[in-house]
Amino acid sequence: MDIKRAKQILSSSADIDITFQGVSVWIDQLHEDEKMATVHLRGPLEERTQVAVKDLVEENE
Fold it and tell me: Where this protein primarily resides, as one coarse class (predicted)?
């Protein structure tokens, strides 16, 4: 994914399915200078981690 699309998803109210290494995640915050994103797993665990935006995948319906 590129940073521009990640920004669009972060500002959208739609529920867009994003995965990181095959696991569904929410984007919490973007760090544009580092091209990183803070994400957390969908579900009861809210552990956050930073990942490269390029490693995020938007799943198509």
Answer: other
